[in-house]
Amino acid sequence: MLCLLLIYIAAPVFSQVQTCPANINFNTHDLSNWSAATGLVGHAVQNYPAPNTGVTSISEYSISSTGIQVITSSGIDAFGGFPTIPTINGYAYNYAVLLGSTATSHDLGGNSRNPGGFTRSITYTINVPGVPPGSASVPYTMTYAYAMVLENGTHNSNEQPLFKATLSTHDSVISCASPKYYLPTFNNASSGGGGSGTGATLDTATALANGFTNSPVLFQSFGGNGGGNYLRDVWTKGWTEVTFDLSPYRGQTVALTFEADNCTPGAHFAYAYVALRNTCAGLEISGKTVACINNTSEYSVPALAGASYNWQVPAGWTINSGANTNIINVTVGNNGGYIINHEVNGCADLMDTINVTTTPPTVAGRVLTDATVCAGINSSPLTISGQVGNVVTWLSSTDGVSWKDVGVTANNYTAQNLNTTTHYTALVQNGSACSIDTSAAALITVDPKTVGGMLNPASLNVCAGQNIIPTIDLLSYTGSILNWQLSYDSVSWSDFTPAYQNSKYNAGTVNKTSYYRSIVKSGVCPADTSTVASIKYINVPFPVAAINPDSSYICYGKSALLNATITTGTSYNWSNNVPLTGTGNGVVGSVPYNTTATATPKATSNVVLTVYNAGCPNPLKDTFYIHVTNPIIVSAGDDTAVVVNQPLQFNATVNDENANIWSWTPATGLNDSHIPDPVAVYGLNTDASVTYVVTAATSAGCSGSDTVVVKVFKTPADIFMPTGFTPNGDGRNDMIRPILVGIKSLTYFRVYNRWGQLVFNTSEAGKGWDGTVGGKLQATDNFVYMVQATDYTGKTIFKKGDFVLIR
Question: CB of 580 within 8 A of CB of 598?
Answer without folding.
Answer: yes
